[in-house]
């Protein structure tokens, strides 16, 4: 760090200390906005996480084989499918395995299946795809293979899910951008009050020959420091509240949604980085925007 | 060292300065006098490049001020010391910091600042007030701080805009003695004033402006406001 940066930083700290009312106002608005953003973030991330979880449970394609297809033929097909892009894994499922799996799913009522005269299920190849959105390509490919009876996968469900997830993501993105926009305006207005209160000071500095960056420096650091402080306060609040929500309702959510809430530690990691970045950029943008008018002349 | 060549600045219909040509040499002590709205303020603001001239050239230390780019303006202003009528001290900085800040913008090391600022405060006679804020000292002392700030970087020119305008006569004279002392150290002093008492007692070069035009330029001149049609005090040239 060179002396100019250190000087600006020292000035910023001094400014913060000597203008406590303004400091508190700025800090309050940054904290309030980050708090709103934080809750929004929690909701969106969890919705995303859940839909992701649901989507992931539909990531398999079952390729049913004809009765006449031999084990060797099946092995060639598996090797072939493995070479395709977007394929995560390929396993062979014998009709006995399939029945056992079925019984397992039925649990208590499984004995009904025992009454079947013979196993009605076909041998099959289970393809797990990496990206469910591109499942159609694999399906088309597999359909063209000899020895395939029919292919089952939850196309409609998957498509619907993809659509819903996409909409949620777009809406979330728009709302977050909107909130960020608002927050920069609010913060820049608050800082503008500070700058206006110091308009005379800025003019004097200009008259004496200070460069724009010399004048801007302390305000920039002030914005960044306030942004970081706001991020810290709101981040702690959001995490504490999230902890309460998870410990109180986490279990219920698992029962309803079949996937839980995002763990607190994951939330902590992501939120810390995001809040720090947001706080710094809101503070910095806010102060630069609010100073523009004063430095143009 | 300062030369105006056919400089004109108009504000729409109103004339700021019109076709002014003048030369000020190094080490001179010059009074710029004239009634309210005569263009004194415009004259000084053009030199500081707080205003752009419509026509003409202003040479300062060999370069043309009217041709400076925005990037060069801060450096240009740093080569001059400026004292305002309203002192223009930073209210949230102490006396020491107010003077130190003029050195900080020149990126002088802290060590040098800590040594030189007290010397300056001593020179203007307020070293005992270093830790006070501008509101805690008298206006005469505030103007001394402003003078200390203006000369701390050893400028070749000191521009004083009505430096005694807000002071009582006695304090005003103290500031004048200070300016004369600074002038004797080799600094060119350009002082804008409407105080005939001071001008007439100092016996320095006098440049009189009226309606934007140069009407008089005399060495060892005097100033009689009645002659120039001045009836009221001139204030707030650097009102922000």
Description:
The complex is a heterodimer of chains A (297) and B (240). The mean pLDDT of chain A is 80. Chain A has two domains: 3-55 and 160-295, no CATH class; 59-153, Alpha-Beta Plaits. By secondary structure, chain A is an alpha+beta fold. In chain A, helix 9 (212-257) runs antiparallel to helix 10. Helix content of chain A is 74%, strand content 8%. In chain A, strands 2-3-1-4 form a four-stranded antiparallel beta sheet. Chain A has helices at 3-18, 20-56, 71-82, 95-106, 111-114, 135-143, 155-197, 199-208, 212-257, 264-295; strands spanning 60-65, 87-93, 124-129, 148-152. Chain B is of the alpha/beta class and 240 residues long. Helices cover 31% and strands 25% of the residues of chain B. Chain B has helices spanning 40-48, 73-78, 95-104, 110-123, 139-151, 169-184, 196-202; strands spanning 2-11, 14-24, 29-33, 55-60, 63-64, 80-83, 157-161, 188-193, 205-210, 213-218. In chain B, the strands form two sheets. Chain B has a six-stranded mixed beta sheet with strand order 6-7-8-3-9-10, sandwiched between helices. In chain B, strands 2-1-4-5 form a four-stranded antiparallel beta sheet, covered by helices on one side. In chain B, strand 4 (55-60) and strand 5 form a beta hairpin. In chain B, helix 3 (95-104) crosses helix 4 (110-123) and helix 5 (139-151) packs parallel to helix 6 (169-184). Chain B is globular and about 45 Å long. The two termini of chain B are 29 Å apart. Mean pLDDT of chain B is 87; it is low at 230-240. Classes of the chains: A alpha+beta (297), B alpha/beta (240). The A-B interface holds A 3-4, 7, 14-15, 18-19, 198-201, 203-212, 214, 297 and B 48, 50, 74-78, 82, 84, 88-92, 101-102, 104-105, 107, 109-110, 149, 238, 240.
């Amino acid at each position: 760090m060179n002396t100019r940066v250190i000087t600006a930083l020292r000035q910023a700290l001094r400014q913060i200390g000597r203008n406590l009312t303004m400091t508190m106002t700025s800090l309050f608005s940054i904290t309030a906005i980050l708090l709103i953003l934080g809750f929004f973030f929690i909701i969106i991330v969890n919705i995303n996480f859940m839909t992701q979880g649901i989507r992931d449970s539909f990531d398999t394609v079952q390729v049913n084989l004809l009765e006449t297809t031999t084990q060797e033929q099946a092995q060639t097909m598996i090797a072939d499918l493995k070479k395709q892009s977007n394929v995560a894994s390929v396993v062979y499922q014998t009709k006995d395995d399939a029945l056992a799996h079925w019984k397992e799913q039925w649990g208590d009522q499984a004995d009904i299946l025992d009454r079947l005269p013979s196993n009605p299920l076909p041998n099959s190849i289970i393809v797990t795809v990496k990206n469910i959105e591109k499942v159609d390509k694999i399906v088309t490919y597999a359909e063209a293979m000899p020895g395939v009876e029919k292919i089952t996968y939850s196309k409609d469900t998957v498509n619907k899910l993809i659509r819903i997830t996409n909409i949620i993501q777009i809406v979330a993105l728009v709302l977050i951008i909107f909130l960020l926009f608002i927050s920069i305006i609010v913060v820049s207005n608050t800082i503008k009050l500070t700058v206006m209160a110091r308009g005379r000071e800025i003019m004097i500095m200009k008259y004496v020959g200070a460069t724009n960056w010399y004048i801007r420096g302390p305000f920039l650091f002030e914005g960044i420091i306030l942004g970081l402080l706001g991020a810290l306060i709101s981040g702690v609040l959001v995490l504490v509240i999230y902890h309460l929500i998870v410990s109180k309702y986490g279990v219920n959510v698992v029962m309803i949604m079949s996937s839980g809430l995002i763990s607190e530690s994951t939330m902590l990691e992501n939120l810390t980085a995001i809040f720090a970045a947001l706080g710094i950029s809101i503070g910095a943008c806010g102060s630069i925007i609010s100073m523009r008018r004063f430095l143009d002349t | 060292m300062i030369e105006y060549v056919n400089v004109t600045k108009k504000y729409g219909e109103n004339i700021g300065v019109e076709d002014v040509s003048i030369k000020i040499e190094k080490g001179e002590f010059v009074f710029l006098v004239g009634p309210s709205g005569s263009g004194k303020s415009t004259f000084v603001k053009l030199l500081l490049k707080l205003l752009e001239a419509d026509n003409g050239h202003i040479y300062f230390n060999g370069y043309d001020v009217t041709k400076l780019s925005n990037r060069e303006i801060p450096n240009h202003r740093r080569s001059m010391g400026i004292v305002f009528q309203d002192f223009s001290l930073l209210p949230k900085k102490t006396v020491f910091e107010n003077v130190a800040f003029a050195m900080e913008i020149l990126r002088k090391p802290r060590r040098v600042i800590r040594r030189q600022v007290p010397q300056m405060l001593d020179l203007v006679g307020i070293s005992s007030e270093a830790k006070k804020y501008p509101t805690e000292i008298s206006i005469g002392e505030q103007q001394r701080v402003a003078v200390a700030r203006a000369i701390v970087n050893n400028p070749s020119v000191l521009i004083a805009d009505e430096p005694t305008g807000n002071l009582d006569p006695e304090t005003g004279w103290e500031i004048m003695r200070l300016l004369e002392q600074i002038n004797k150290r080799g600094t060119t002093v350009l002082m804008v004033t409407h105080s005939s008492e001071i001008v007439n007692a100092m016996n320095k070069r006098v440049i009189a402006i009226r309606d934007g035009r140069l009407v008089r330029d005399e060495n060892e001149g005097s100033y009689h406001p009645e002659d120039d049609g001045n009836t009221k005090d001139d204030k707030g040239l650097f009102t922000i």
